[in-house]
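Example record used in the benchmark description.
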Amino acid sequence: MAKGEKINFSTPSGFPEFLPGEKRLEVYLLDTIRRVFESYGFTPIETPAVERLEVLQAKGNQGDNIIYGIDPILPPNRQAEKEKSGETGSESRALKFDQTVPLAAYIARHLNELTFPFARYQMDVVFRGERAKDGRFRQFRQCDIDVVARRELSLLYDAQMPAIISEIFENINIGDFLIRINNRKILTGFFQSLGIEESKIKTCITIVDTLEKVGEAKVKKHLETEGISVAVTQQIIDFIKIDGNVDNVLDKLKHLSQNIPDSQQFNLGVTELETVIAGVRNLGVAENRFSVDLSIARGLDYYTGTVYETTLIGHEALGSICSGGRYEELVGVFLGEKMPGVGISIGLTRLMSRLIKAGILNTLSPTPAQAMVVNLQADLMPLYLKVSQELRKAGINVVTSFDKRGLGKQFQQADKQGIKFCVIIGSDEATAQKSSLKNLQTGEQIEVSLENLAQEIKRRL
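Model output (structure tokens):
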């Protein structure tokens, strides 16, 4: 770079950077989500941001996701080392695009050190080469849970997922939401009964999954492009539009199973869905929080059974705010044995940005400090430090003003940061072992003994 040349220090497109109040909101959401995850016994892990490319691409794991490769950039005087860096061929590496594929590799690497069923949560950053736009990022944080077992995994783990989703969003208090549940075996069995070729069924399921995004007309067009007749296409549309309350839809499915040929896969899906719904009810999830939606399929090929998508009522344009499902073969890709799993994911960065924009969530104040000890006299700094520490020991977050400025300026600084209280101690107050406590939100100012200061602030917070 030439001397004096200006550096473009703006953030790359699609890579978010938070202001303090936004970051504090993210931390609050992470803490809320973590508490719910841990209340169900999930344990934290973290996998590397970088995985071997062959792991991320194994047996179609990549799907439609654009992966960022890792290529070392050597300084001009070290170019000869590039060939020795091990970044070519089978050693090619890339940034992880989700948490589920790295989880499968993690289990394979630590198989003999883990206890199964293995229930973990992860809140890592992932990377995708998407076209950056509103609510879409190339770097974003996902909050995932998965339970993986060896050979068999109870469907009650599937039932537990909606209970966890419901508890998280009720705690965050974002308004009414609906967890939509389906089973891909039902779709697979129905398509089989229509005589659709096995090789086309996954593609048809993927097309059906786009119904909400592209509309009925485009879904029909895409199905017909796959060689599905107009009549069969209409049967598919009629099927996925079956609605009603949960029991009504289940009754319609059971009735339908008696009238379709080769219904084994279809019946298995219906039976599994009934088991999951019963478990959801036994876990106390409110009836208005979940439904059966036959159009939900989840686009990734590795989902094989129960699938979920969560919608914020009145803000459906936000898309799914939490999704996931059951998979049978993903972990086995690396180990050659059956290891079924089920999980859900909250794309927290995307969700938070959209909820802020929609006015559903508000950013927090820029600082966690609840009080500021202002600086009136340099010679009283030892007392200011002592009072600050005593407040902290009482559980109050405190900023001490080290720079002596006008009292009004210090009040302005505290108010701008969202600090509620200012503690004012001058010579007279120090002699009397008292302070003035000013509430910046109301303007009220009272006199409090230093002995009772912490108790008074906590009472008023």
